[in-house]
Design goal:
elongated, 5 helices, DNA binding, eight-stranded antiparallel beta sheet, DNA Polymerase III, Chain A, domain 2, 2 domains, alpha+beta, 19% helix, single chain, 17 strands, 286 residues, DNA_polIII_beta_N, DNA-directed DNA polymerase activity, 3'-5' exonuclease activity, DNA_polIII_beta_C
Length: 286
């Protein structure tokens, strides 16, 4: 396995994949990133067994295909320390991967690619295609309400509700609830409800851009997969039932407040200075 690639081409996909890898792992191979060279395409894979990210990049030159795993953080730190216009030469010799750039030379220990876990393949049940910008808006507007480390594990994530005529996302931590719906036609005969874990939502939101390009989300019985030309994102689904959010939505309210968003935000911010640090509650008097 031998190839040459510029730092500029490698650094972004490497940082994307390294973000998925947890620093502390029970399995040593989970701290590594899987490098697979096939012709002039290099794929980088990182996983924590819940979320998997595969990023693809074209190398400048290659002389031997192969696959190996190397420490993700070490490789990322090395690339960040090099100059922007650096050219990186990778050479695999038995169990050592040598990285050379100019007068700098690094040797990394490796683990066999056969030990690297991969997300099991399963038949797809249905899919939906949505503009990246719209999906990012949905996640940005609702992800703040997701619970963190709640014993009710199904709240530590976000509900995706796919109907033949709309796509809705819902998040709640038991104290607040955020929901947003977009009208669109979907390839499903009935309403489907799926729960994505918190880390999966945060990673997916980090990956998608504000552009007009579409992204296709494919759902299986246990996984969701998002495919783009340069990356493939896979996340396990939470096995649980999301609470009936319709029961907690206010009905029959007769008090409506209309005001400037920035003015209201600043007013709440000033009042919250003296609020309880844990709940940050503010009383509203109309």
């Amino acid at each position: 396995m031998q190839f040459t690639i510029s730092r500029e081409a490698l650094i972004k996909p490497l940082q994307m994949v390294s973000a998925v890898v947890e620093r502390r792992q029970t399995l040593p191979v989970l701290s590594n990133v899987l490098l697979v060279l096939n012709g002039d395409e290099l794929s980088l894979t990182g996983t924590d067994l819940e979320v998997e990210l595969i990023s693809r990049v074209t190398v400048d030159s290659s002389s031997a295909d192969g696959e190996i795993t190397v420490p993700a953080r070490k490789l990322s730190d090395i690339c960040k320390s090099l100059s922007d216009d650096a050219i990186l030469e990778f050479t695999l010799s038995e169990t050592k991967l040598t990285l050379q750039s100019g007068r700098s030379r690094f040797t990394l220990t490796t683990l066999p690619a056969t030990e690297f876990p991969s997300v099991e393949e399963e038949p797809d049940t249905f899919s939906l295609t949505i503009a990246q910008q719209k999906l990012k808006e949905l996640l940005d507007n609702t992800s703040f309400a997701m619970a963190q480390q709640d014993v009710r594990y199904y709240l530590n994530g976000m509900l995706f509700e796919i109907d033949p005529e709309f796509f809705r996302v819902v998040a709640t931590d038991g104290h607040r609830l955020a929901m947003q719906t977009v009208t669109m036609s979907n390839q499903t005969e009935s309403t489907q409800q799926l729960i994505l874990p918190r880390k999966g939502i945060l990673e997916l939101n980090r990956l998608i851009s504000d552009g007009d390009a579409d992204i296709t989300l494919t759902f299986g019985n246990n996984h969701i997969r998002a495919k783009m030309p340069t990356f493939t994102f896979t996340s396990k689904l939470v096995d649980g039932k999301f609470p009936d959010y319709n029961r907690v939505l206010p009905k029959g309210g007769n008090k409506i407040v209309t005001g400037n968003c920035d003015d209201l935000k600043r007013a709440f911010s000033r009042a919250s200075i003296l609020s309880n640090e844990k709940f940050r509650g503010v009383r509203v008097v109309l």
